[in-house]
Amino acid sequence: MLCISYQPDEKTCAQFTVKLLYFLLSALALVACVLAVAFAAHHYLQLTKFTCDTIQESCQCKLDPADPLGRTFVYQDAADCGSLTSLLSLYLLLQMALNLVAALVCLLMCFVVWKHRYQVFYVGVRFQPLTAAQGTGQQV
């Protein structure tokens, strides 16, 4: 957005198009990050309810060990189930935190574009200096 010369009130088509694409992509990224946080939180909650057993150099985890038809998650070549589940939970917590930070950045970008469009709020670098007529006020 900063590569296009700033003109007030979006007088150029390129400036309007770039702002619109920037806002739409930021909103799409915001939705994707929130969904990523939700799915990681869902998997983390499932992981906390697992009961895991080591069987033939693999770790087999179930949500409900009494249910014979319940889904079984098998992790091959994992001899220690405790370290596997702790590592997976740490990974999911880290993923949730990073996606939450990314969602907040996307929300901030949407806010800046929206605020600039509807409430005259400019954040950026001015590439063209103010002329003398614009820079001076009325002399008394």
| Helical coverage, percent range | 55-70%
Protein structure class: mainly alpha
Biggest β-sheet: strands ordered side by side in the sheet: 1-2-3
What distance lies between the first and last C-alpha atoms, to the nearest angstrom?
Answer: 39 Å
Low-pLDDT residue intervals, each spanning 5 or more residues: none
Q: Count of DSSP helices?
A: 3
Label the overall shape: rod-shaped
Give an overview of the whole structure.
By secondary structure, this protein is mostly helical. It has helices at residues 13-48, 81-119, 132-135, and strands spanning 51-55, 58-62, 72-76. Helix 1 (13-48) packs antiparallel against helix 2 (81-119). The protein is rod-shaped. The mean pLDDT is 80.
